[in-house]
Amino acid sequence: MTSLALRHRIGQVPGWIVLLAWAAAVALPLYILIVSCFKTTAEIYNDKFGLPSAWTFQNFISAWTHVDFGRYLLNSLGVTGAAVVFTVLFAAMAAYPLSRYELKWASPVLAFFLAGIMLPIRLASVELFTLMKELGLLDSRLGLVFVYVAIRLPFAIFIFANFMRALPRELEEAARIDGAGEWRVLFLVILPIVRPAVAIVAIFTAIAVWNDFFFPLIFIFDQDLRTVPFATMSFIGQYRTEWGEVFASLALSMAPVLLMYVLLARQIREGVGAGGGLK
Amino acid sequence: MAEATRTGRARTGRRFSAAAFARHRRAFLFILPALTLYVVFIVYPLALSLWGSLFRWRGLRQQGFIGLDNFVRLVEPPSRDLLFGAFGHNVIWFAGVMLLQNGLGLIFAYLLFRRGRGTALLQSVFFFPAVLSPVIVGALWKLLLSPEGAVEAMLSALGLMEGRLTILGNSTYALYVLIAIDAWNWMGLPVLIFLAGLRQIHPSVFEAARLDGAGPVRTLWSIALPLLVPAVSSLTTLSFINTFNQFDLVYVMQGVAGNPNYATDTLVTYFYRLAFGAIGAVGITDIGLALALGSALFLLLTLVTILLIRFFERRTVQPA
């Protein structure tokens, strides 16, 4: 190694220290969360940072039975799954003519949708509550799905329209000459090509819906219909002194997201770089 | 001959308009499901909220038109102190997020950028907290920061502190702790957005800076940052909107009243108490005030967002 290259390497050391320090700041709290799940509450008080003396699943078992976690997991999966499917479907359907047909009214309609990316819908929650009540959608998982899809549509349409606009026009014209109807053009020609957009929309819709607790907080009163974050919150309120169980309940509600993140880390990184809007 | 041309033209003309009509109709049918959900569940309730803020309310029942009385009540005692307190906290929160999250995020992104492509794992680690529910982030940090928690143990071990750590109950510092946790939570966002922006700058720009003898700090500040205005713009706008919608972290960690003694209260937690009542005081709501606060906040968000976007548009440098 030449001395210049060596000096370059040495010059990079402080930067590496800064980067690794932040990585530690992210990892350490999560490490404590994981090891604490396997400790008794007394052990958590005595030794915060060490590995558990015995790996016991007792905390998970108590948390699971106390919270009825399986039911909430199914609720969350159902609501999130339905919200993702309908967001992708309706957003792709709307973005297709708005970005690919020659329509005079396309750009104002698109702007009308895109304004929704920044609309603070929580501030309308009083009137939304009244509306949901009149529609019989309080205490309803379907009601949550409607609200989530409506909230996620603007961002999804924005992403789809951006991807679809970049495609060459010959694409659907060739398919139309072959006699394909508009549905087939959209679902068999366009959507397969904009797969990255489908991935971005699906991933970020899933994360946002899975994590939300605001709308269950105001629309769900029946305990059996709660979703995971909401149920976790009321659990930690009730069992606040049982630290082992509280940590275990946090780990349980984090597990699905962690699994997805490990599988899709690259797509998520690229999606944030491309689209930005996650919250 | 002339006759045939004329009817031919007329026929194609009619066929064209029929085709155009079919195309408009088909486009409309494709948009309809999205439009319906968006209008019914977002636009309509928002419009009703704006309109409703001009009326007197008894519980959830709308009564007579009273003009701006709700807004006047909002800025008069007893609401006044809560409103301005919460507004001040939101402003401090925004400044803190800009400095801590977006400022540090820019530095992290630049360090990662200079180290090339072998940093994917670090980027993923940095972004991970952003995919966690605010319930997990809030509850985890509440446990870590509680008396006899991990942070206390660490500070004691390092000799930085003695006795019990009660910072979340301290009305001077609790707000800053929450802002730091929010920055911890979302740090990955500026890192990834700045990194994507840095990669779009042509390598020759950095090469020229290096040949001119510019060090890394100068290169970042004078060369890269002016070219990153689109990223700065979207992050500033996003941080502004998110900060002034801040609710989750406060609710999970400090309760809906922004404990201690409203020291961490935000505009949306105040809105929530007015609209849905506080824990232990269910039923004491004031829908008129809630709608007025919601409308004022909506107008503030819209106005400032438009101003921010305009401000940054004028400062966008087109790379030569």
From TrEMBL, chain A:
Keyword Secreted: no
Major localization listed first in the record, in broad terms: membrane
Annotated protein name in UniProt: Raffinose/stachyose/melibiose transport system permease protein
Family per similarity comment: Belongs to the binding-protein-dependent transport system permease family.
Membrane topology qualifier: Multi-pass membrane protein
Cell compartments where the protein resides: Cell membrane
Span of domain ABC transmembrane type-1: 73-264
One of the record's GO cellular component terms: plasma membrane
Transmembrane segments: 16-37, 73-98, 105-125, 145-164, 185-210, 246-264
Keywords from the named record: Cell membrane, Membrane, Transmembrane, Transmembrane helix, Transport
Source species: Prosthecomicrobium pneumaticum
Gene Ontology biological process terms in this record: transmembrane transport
Pfam families in alphabetical order: BPD_transp_1
From TrEMBL, chain B:
Coiled-coil regions, chain positions: none
The keyword Secreted belongs to this UniProt entry's keyword annotation: no
CDD domains: TM_PBP2
Domain ABC transmembrane type-1: 87-308
Keywords: Cell membrane, Membrane, Transmembrane, Transmembrane helix, Transport
Compartmental location: Cell membrane
InterPro entries the UniProt entry points to: MetI-like, MetI-like_sf, UgpAE/MalFG_permease
Membrane topology recorded in Swiss-Prot or TrEMBL: Multi-pass membrane protein
Signal peptide range: none
Source taxon at top rank: Bacteria
Transmembrane segments: 27-51, 91-113, 125-144, 173-198, 219-241, 287-309
GO cellular component terms, semicolon-separated: plasma membrane
Example GO biological process: transmembrane transport
Protein family membership: Belongs to the binding-protein-dependent transport system permease family.
Name listed for the protein in its UniProt record: Raffinose/stachyose/melibiose transport system permease protein
Taxon lineage: Bacteria, Pseudomonadati, Pseudomonadota, Alphaproteobacteria, Hyphomicrobiales
